[in-house]
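Notes to self after the Tuesday call (sharing in case useful).
The group wants a holo model before anyone commits to mutagenesis around the pocket. I volunteered. Ligand is fe (ii) ion. Logging inputs and output together so the record is complete.
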Amino acid sequence: MEKIVWCKDFNVGVSEIDKQHMALIEIVNNLIESVSNNENRLEIIIGAITKMSLYATKHFTFEEQLMQKYSYAAFSLQQEQHKQFRIKIINVSNEVTACEKSVPLELLVEITTYLQNWWLNHILEFDMQYKEFFNKKGIN
Ligand SMILES: [Fe+2]
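Result:
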């Protein structure tokens, strides 16, 4: 799998959010690196999934608070997407925890592909929609 290369097209123009998105992509990239290296030891993968789960929760809270503060129209759509992700990451976490010693590579690829697609789609399709909105409010 190829690592995600961050480029300026990923920027939503709110520096704190861009910083958080970069950190999230970095966690996805760590998993991509694990896939490339056949690194499937349980503690390594659980570590990455836990990091993803905690950081995503922190990020969604930050984003949702900002959206609520400025009455962003697509707030509930965003909230729903975030909720779906949180449910999925709990399921992923349970699946991984149920493994013994190592995570089957097939499962690792499946999880990593899901996370890669979800974040790229979410940032580029959904978060990008608030770029202009926050920019006009003078948030950057
Ligand atoms: Fe979002």
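Two things stood out.
Residues 63, 78, 122, 126-127 surround fe (ii) ion (CB under 6 Å).
The two ends are 33 Å apart (CA to CA).
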